From TrEMBL:
Keywords: Cytoplasm, Iron, Metal-binding, Oxidoreductase. PANTHER family: INOSITOL OXYGENASE (PTHR12588:SF0), MYOINOSITOL OXYGENASE (PTHR12588). It holds the Pfam family MIOX. Belongs to the myo-inositol oxygenase family. Its cofactor is Fe cation. Binds 2 iron ions per subunit. Fe cation binds at H122, H146, D147, H224, H249, D282. Its EC number is 1.13.99.1. Substrate binds at R55, D109, E110, S111, K150, G165, D166, H249, S250. This is Inositol oxygenase. Pathway: Polyol metabolism; myo-inositol degradation into D-glucuronate; D-glucuronate from myo-inositol: step 1/1.
Length: 333
Protein backbone atom coordinates (compact mmCIF):
# COMPACT_ATOMS: atom_id res chain seq x y z
CA UNK A 1 0.00 0.00 0.00
CA UNK A 2 1.44 3.36 -0.99
CA UNK A 3 2.25 5.56 2.02
CA UNK A 4 -0.09 8.43 2.70
CA UNK A 5 -2.95 7.07 0.57
CA UNK A 6 -4.98 5.07 3.05
CA UNK A 7 -4.83 4.58 6.78
CA UNK A 8 -4.79 1.24 8.54
CA UNK A 9 -8.44 1.81 9.45
CA UNK A 10 -9.96 4.01 6.76
CA UNK A 11 -12.54 6.50 8.03
CA UNK A 12 -16.12 5.73 7.03
CA UNK A 13 -17.14 7.32 3.75
CA UNK A 14 -20.15 9.58 3.64
CA UNK A 15 -23.12 8.51 1.57
CA UNK A 16 -23.50 9.42 -2.07
CA UNK A 17 -26.31 11.75 -1.04
CA UNK A 18 -23.99 13.63 1.33
CA UNK A 19 -21.25 13.79 -1.28
CA UNK A 20 -23.58 15.32 -3.85
CA UNK A 21 -25.04 17.74 -1.28
CA UNK A 22 -21.60 19.13 -0.51
CA UNK A 23 -20.73 19.23 -4.22
CA UNK A 24 -23.89 21.25 -4.92
CA UNK A 25 -23.05 23.68 -2.12
CA UNK A 26 -19.56 24.16 -3.56
CA UNK A 27 -21.09 24.86 -6.97
CA UNK A 28 -23.42 27.40 -5.37
CA UNK A 29 -20.41 29.20 -3.88
CA UNK A 30 -18.66 29.25 -7.25
CA UNK A 31 -21.80 30.58 -8.96
CA UNK A 32 -21.85 33.37 -6.39
CA UNK A 33 -18.18 34.20 -6.78
CA UNK A 34 -18.34 33.98 -10.57
CA UNK A 35 -21.26 36.40 -10.81
CA UNK A 36 -20.43 39.99 -11.79
CA UNK A 37 -20.59 42.59 -9.07
CA UNK A 38 -24.06 44.19 -9.18
CA UNK A 39 -24.28 47.77 -10.40
CA UNK A 40 -25.12 50.65 -8.10
CA UNK A 41 -28.60 50.84 -9.60
CA UNK A 42 -29.44 47.20 -8.99
CA UNK A 43 -27.55 46.33 -5.84
CA UNK A 44 -28.34 46.91 -2.22
CA UNK A 45 -25.62 47.65 0.31
CA UNK A 46 -25.79 44.06 1.55
CA UNK A 47 -25.42 42.31 -1.83
CA UNK A 48 -22.97 44.65 -3.58
CA UNK A 49 -19.93 42.63 -2.58
CA UNK A 50 -19.87 39.00 -3.81
CA UNK A 51 -16.95 38.20 -1.51
CA UNK A 52 -19.00 39.44 1.45
CA UNK A 53 -21.89 37.26 0.35
CA UNK A 54 -19.49 34.34 0.10
CA UNK A 55 -18.32 34.84 3.67
CA UNK A 56 -21.95 34.86 4.83
CA UNK A 57 -22.63 31.69 2.85
CA UNK A 58 -19.69 29.83 4.35
CA UNK A 59 -20.64 30.95 7.86
CA UNK A 60 -24.05 29.40 7.30
CA UNK A 61 -22.61 26.25 5.74
CA UNK A 62 -20.45 24.38 8.24
CA UNK A 63 -20.28 21.35 5.91
CA UNK A 64 -18.50 23.37 3.23
CA UNK A 65 -16.17 24.94 5.76
CA UNK A 66 -15.31 21.54 7.23
CA UNK A 67 -14.73 20.03 3.78
CA UNK A 68 -12.25 22.71 2.77
CA UNK A 69 -10.48 22.55 6.12
CA UNK A 70 -10.01 18.79 5.80
CA UNK A 71 -9.01 19.05 2.13
CA UNK A 72 -6.46 21.78 2.81
CA UNK A 73 -4.94 19.89 5.71
CA UNK A 74 -4.69 16.51 3.96
CA UNK A 75 -3.84 17.34 0.33
CA UNK A 76 -0.08 17.05 0.75
CA UNK A 77 2.69 16.22 -1.70
CA UNK A 78 3.02 12.80 -0.07
CA UNK A 79 -0.66 12.04 -0.46
CA UNK A 80 -0.76 13.24 -4.08
CA UNK A 81 2.24 11.20 -5.12
CA UNK A 82 0.75 8.13 -3.43
CA UNK A 83 -2.61 8.70 -5.15
CA UNK A 84 -0.98 8.86 -8.57
CA UNK A 85 1.10 5.79 -7.87
CA UNK A 86 -2.05 3.91 -6.90
CA UNK A 87 -3.83 5.14 -10.03
CA UNK A 88 -1.10 3.86 -12.34
CA UNK A 89 -0.73 0.61 -10.41
CA UNK A 90 -4.37 -0.51 -10.44
CA UNK A 91 -7.30 -0.74 -12.81
CA UNK A 92 -10.38 -0.11 -10.66
CA UNK A 93 -12.90 -1.04 -13.36
CA UNK A 94 -13.22 -1.56 -17.10
CA UNK A 95 -16.27 0.01 -18.70
CA UNK A 96 -17.42 2.29 -21.46
CA UNK A 97 -18.44 5.92 -21.04
CA UNK A 98 -22.18 5.28 -21.03
CA UNK A 99 -21.77 2.47 -18.52
CA UNK A 100 -19.71 4.82 -16.36
CA UNK A 101 -22.52 7.37 -16.53
CA UNK A 102 -24.98 4.73 -15.39
CA UNK A 103 -22.73 3.77 -12.49
CA UNK A 104 -22.37 7.40 -11.48
CA UNK A 105 -26.13 7.69 -11.57
CA UNK A 106 -26.30 5.23 -8.65
CA UNK A 107 -24.46 7.76 -6.47
CA UNK A 108 -27.84 9.09 -5.36
CA UNK A 109 -31.01 7.08 -4.86
CA UNK A 110 -33.46 8.60 -7.33
CA UNK A 111 -36.33 7.69 -4.99
CA UNK A 112 -34.96 10.27 -2.54
CA UNK A 113 -37.53 13.10 -2.51
CA UNK A 114 -34.78 15.66 -1.86
CA UNK A 115 -33.02 14.80 -5.12
CA UNK A 116 -34.04 17.19 -7.91
CA UNK A 117 -31.51 16.24 -10.59
CA UNK A 118 -29.85 12.90 -11.23
CA UNK A 119 -26.23 12.58 -12.28
CA UNK A 120 -27.16 11.64 -15.85
CA UNK A 121 -29.61 14.53 -16.03
CA UNK A 122 -26.87 17.01 -15.11
CA UNK A 123 -24.44 15.51 -17.62
CA UNK A 124 -27.09 15.57 -20.37
CA UNK A 125 -28.14 19.06 -19.32
CA UNK A 126 -24.61 20.37 -19.73
CA UNK A 127 -24.10 18.63 -23.08
CA UNK A 128 -27.52 19.69 -24.38
CA UNK A 129 -26.82 23.34 -23.52
CA UNK A 130 -23.62 23.16 -25.54
CA UNK A 131 -25.39 21.38 -28.38
CA UNK A 132 -28.12 24.05 -28.38
CA UNK A 133 -25.48 26.78 -28.67
CA UNK A 134 -23.76 25.07 -31.60
CA UNK A 135 -20.56 24.16 -29.77
CA UNK A 136 -18.30 21.60 -31.48
CA UNK A 137 -18.93 17.92 -30.90
CA UNK A 138 -15.73 17.46 -28.88
CA UNK A 139 -16.97 20.10 -26.43
CA UNK A 140 -20.41 18.49 -26.19
CA UNK A 141 -18.89 15.13 -25.27
CA UNK A 142 -16.63 16.90 -22.75
CA UNK A 143 -19.73 18.35 -21.11
CA UNK A 144 -21.29 14.90 -21.14
CA UNK A 145 -18.41 13.29 -19.22
CA UNK A 146 -17.00 16.13 -17.13
CA UNK A 147 -18.22 14.82 -13.74
CA UNK A 148 -17.39 11.13 -14.27
CA UNK A 149 -14.36 11.55 -12.02
CA UNK A 150 -16.79 11.39 -9.10
CA UNK A 151 -16.59 7.64 -9.62
CA UNK A 152 -13.63 7.98 -7.24
CA UNK A 153 -16.29 7.73 -4.54
CA UNK A 154 -16.64 4.04 -5.46
CA UNK A 155 -12.93 3.45 -5.96
CA UNK A 156 -11.29 3.87 -2.57
CA UNK A 157 -11.68 7.57 -1.81
CA UNK A 158 -10.97 8.43 1.81
CA UNK A 159 -13.82 10.92 2.05
CA UNK A 160 -15.40 13.93 0.38
CA UNK A 161 -12.16 15.92 0.56
CA UNK A 162 -10.38 13.83 -2.10
CA UNK A 163 -13.34 13.72 -4.51
CA UNK A 164 -14.94 17.19 -4.64
CA UNK A 165 -13.84 20.75 -3.92
CA UNK A 166 -11.75 23.31 -5.77
CA UNK A 167 -8.47 22.35 -7.41
CA UNK A 168 -5.12 23.86 -6.41
CA UNK A 169 -1.43 23.07 -7.00
CA UNK A 170 -0.41 20.87 -4.14
CA UNK A 171 3.21 20.25 -4.96
CA UNK A 172 5.70 19.04 -7.56
CA UNK A 173 6.26 16.13 -9.85
CA UNK A 174 8.87 14.61 -7.55
CA UNK A 175 8.88 14.17 -3.76
CA UNK A 176 11.59 16.78 -3.32
CA UNK A 177 9.79 19.72 -4.91
CA UNK A 178 6.73 22.00 -4.43
CA UNK A 179 5.34 25.51 -4.29
CA UNK A 180 3.46 27.72 -1.84
CA UNK A 181 -0.31 27.70 -1.47
CA UNK A 182 -1.87 30.83 -2.91
CA UNK A 183 -3.98 33.09 -0.66
CA UNK A 184 -6.61 33.31 -3.42
CA UNK A 185 -7.62 29.70 -2.77
CA UNK A 186 -10.95 29.54 -0.92
CA UNK A 187 -10.45 29.50 2.88
CA UNK A 188 -6.69 29.52 2.34
CA UNK A 189 -6.06 30.17 6.04
CA UNK A 190 -6.78 26.48 6.67
CA UNK A 191 -3.54 25.54 4.89
CA UNK A 192 -1.70 26.50 8.07
CA UNK A 193 -2.34 22.94 9.31
CA UNK A 194 -0.95 21.35 6.14
CA UNK A 195 2.60 20.02 6.76
CA UNK A 196 3.74 21.28 3.34
CA UNK A 197 3.04 24.87 4.35
CA UNK A 198 6.09 24.71 6.61
CA UNK A 199 8.35 22.81 4.22
CA UNK A 200 11.51 24.79 3.34
CA UNK A 201 11.01 24.20 -0.40
CA UNK A 202 7.30 23.52 -0.83
CA UNK A 203 6.39 26.72 1.00
CA UNK A 204 8.30 29.11 -1.27
CA UNK A 205 6.63 31.09 -4.03
CA UNK A 206 8.34 29.34 -6.93
CA UNK A 207 9.46 26.17 -5.17
CA UNK A 208 10.95 23.85 -7.74
CA UNK A 209 9.22 25.41 -10.70
CA UNK A 210 10.85 27.61 -13.29
CA UNK A 211 8.96 30.67 -14.50
CA UNK A 212 6.49 29.78 -17.27
CA UNK A 213 7.19 26.07 -16.98
CA UNK A 214 3.60 25.27 -17.97
CA UNK A 215 0.63 24.03 -15.96
CA UNK A 216 1.17 20.54 -17.37
CA UNK A 217 4.16 20.35 -15.04
CA UNK A 218 2.26 21.24 -11.87
CA UNK A 219 0.98 18.60 -9.50
CA UNK A 220 -2.65 19.57 -8.92
CA UNK A 221 -4.64 18.40 -5.94
CA UNK A 222 -6.07 14.91 -6.41
CA UNK A 223 -9.83 14.80 -6.88
CA UNK A 224 -12.51 14.02 -9.43
CA UNK A 225 -11.19 16.41 -12.10
CA UNK A 226 -7.59 15.24 -11.91
CA UNK A 227 -8.66 11.61 -11.81
CA UNK A 228 -10.84 11.88 -14.92
CA UNK A 229 -8.11 13.79 -16.76
CA UNK A 230 -5.69 10.91 -16.18
CA UNK A 231 -8.33 8.38 -17.26
CA UNK A 232 -9.16 9.99 -20.61
CA UNK A 233 -5.97 11.72 -21.74
CA UNK A 234 -4.51 8.52 -23.24
CA UNK A 235 -7.81 6.73 -23.94
CA UNK A 236 -9.56 9.28 -26.13
CA UNK A 237 -9.06 11.49 -29.14
CA UNK A 238 -10.18 14.60 -27.26
CA UNK A 239 -8.21 17.75 -28.14
CA UNK A 240 -6.05 19.61 -25.64
CA UNK A 241 -8.82 22.14 -25.04
CA UNK A 242 -11.16 19.37 -23.88
CA UNK A 243 -8.54 17.92 -21.56
CA UNK A 244 -7.96 21.38 -20.10
CA UNK A 245 -11.70 21.81 -19.52
CA UNK A 246 -11.76 18.52 -17.61
CA UNK A 247 -8.62 19.12 -15.60
CA UNK A 248 -8.90 22.81 -14.81
CA UNK A 249 -12.61 23.65 -14.57
CA UNK A 250 -12.45 23.50 -10.74
CA UNK A 251 -9.12 25.36 -10.70
CA UNK A 252 -10.84 28.61 -9.70
CA UNK A 253 -7.76 30.30 -8.19
CA UNK A 254 -6.25 30.16 -11.68
CA UNK A 255 -9.06 30.80 -14.14
CA UNK A 256 -11.20 33.13 -12.00
CA UNK A 257 -8.84 34.78 -9.51
CA UNK A 258 -5.77 35.15 -11.72
CA UNK A 259 -3.36 33.14 -9.55
CA UNK A 260 -0.36 31.12 -10.80
CA UNK A 261 0.19 33.22 -13.91
CA UNK A 262 3.91 32.95 -13.23
CA UNK A 263 3.82 29.28 -14.23
CA UNK A 264 1.88 29.71 -17.49
CA UNK A 265 3.39 29.14 -20.91
CA UNK A 266 1.91 30.14 -24.27
CA UNK A 267 -0.26 27.04 -24.51
CA UNK A 268 -1.79 27.72 -21.09
CA UNK A 269 -3.14 31.08 -22.21
CA UNK A 270 -5.04 29.30 -24.98
CA UNK A 271 -6.30 26.68 -22.53
CA UNK A 272 -7.44 29.42 -20.16
CA UNK A 273 -9.84 30.73 -22.78
CA UNK A 274 -11.20 27.22 -23.34
CA UNK A 275 -11.83 26.68 -19.62
CA UNK A 276 -13.56 30.05 -19.31
CA UNK A 277 -15.81 29.08 -22.21
CA UNK A 278 -16.67 25.77 -20.56
CA UNK A 279 -17.43 26.81 -17.00
CA UNK A 280 -20.72 28.68 -17.48
CA UNK A 281 -22.20 25.50 -18.94
CA UNK A 282 -21.23 23.54 -15.84
CA UNK A 283 -22.37 26.14 -13.31
CA UNK A 284 -25.33 27.85 -14.91
CA UNK A 285 -26.92 25.01 -16.88
CA UNK A 286 -28.05 23.70 -13.48
CA UNK A 287 -30.44 26.64 -13.29
CA UNK A 288 -32.01 25.71 -16.63
CA UNK A 289 -35.03 23.45 -16.78
CA UNK A 290 -33.91 19.84 -16.20
CA UNK A 291 -33.90 17.60 -19.27
CA UNK A 292 -37.43 16.37 -19.89
CA UNK A 293 -37.31 12.60 -20.02
CA UNK A 294 -40.02 12.31 -22.67
CA UNK A 295 -38.47 14.95 -24.90
CA UNK A 296 -35.06 13.34 -24.77
CA UNK A 297 -36.61 9.92 -25.44
CA UNK A 298 -34.69 8.45 -22.51
CA UNK A 299 -36.25 6.56 -19.63
CA UNK A 300 -34.53 4.76 -16.78
CA UNK A 301 -30.79 4.47 -17.34
CA UNK A 302 -30.43 2.60 -14.07
CA UNK A 303 -32.84 -0.24 -14.67
CA UNK A 304 -33.98 -1.67 -17.98
CA UNK A 305 -32.61 1.06 -20.32
CA UNK A 306 -36.03 1.14 -22.00
CA UNK A 307 -36.75 3.92 -24.48
CA UNK A 308 -39.98 5.68 -25.16
CA UNK A 309 -41.47 5.98 -28.62
CA UNK A 310 -39.25 7.70 -31.15
CA UNK A 311 -36.31 5.35 -31.15
CA UNK A 312 -34.09 6.83 -28.46
CA UNK A 313 -32.77 9.85 -30.38
CA UNK A 314 -30.84 11.41 -27.50
CA UNK A 315 -29.19 8.19 -26.45
CA UNK A 316 -28.14 7.22 -29.97
CA UNK A 317 -26.80 10.75 -30.62
CA UNK A 318 -24.58 10.65 -27.57
CA UNK A 319 -23.59 7.02 -28.08
CA UNK A 320 -22.35 8.01 -31.54
CA UNK A 321 -20.58 11.01 -30.05
CA UNK A 322 -18.89 8.82 -27.44
CA UNK A 323 -17.84 6.29 -30.08
CA UNK A 324 -16.28 9.06 -32.16
CA UNK A 325 -14.01 10.33 -29.39
CA UNK A 326 -13.52 7.08 -27.45
CA UNK A 327 -12.63 4.52 -30.14
CA UNK A 328 -11.32 2.14 -27.48
CA UNK A 329 -14.97 1.65 -26.34
CA UNK A 330 -14.03 0.06 -23.00
CA UNK A 331 -11.78 2.21 -20.82
CA UNK A 332 -9.54 1.37 -17.88
CA UNK A 333 -10.68 3.27 -14.79
Amino acid sequence: MAPGLTSATPPPLSSGRELEDISDQIDAINVLLSSPTPTATTATTEDSNPKSNFRQYVSASPQVKALYREQHEKQTVEYNLAARKAFHSNVRARMGIWEAMEKLNTLIDESDPDTSLSQIQHLLQTAEAMRRDGKPKWMQVTGLIHDLGKLLFFFGAQGQWDVVGDTFPGGPCSPLLGCAFDPRIILSESFSQNPDSKHPIYSTEMGIYAPHCGLDNLLLSWGHDEYLYHVVKDQSSLPDEALAMIRYHSFYPWHREGAYRRFMNQKDWQMLEAVKEFNPYDLYSKSDAPPVVGELKVVSFMTDHSLTGGGGCAQSYYIELIDEFFPKKVLDW
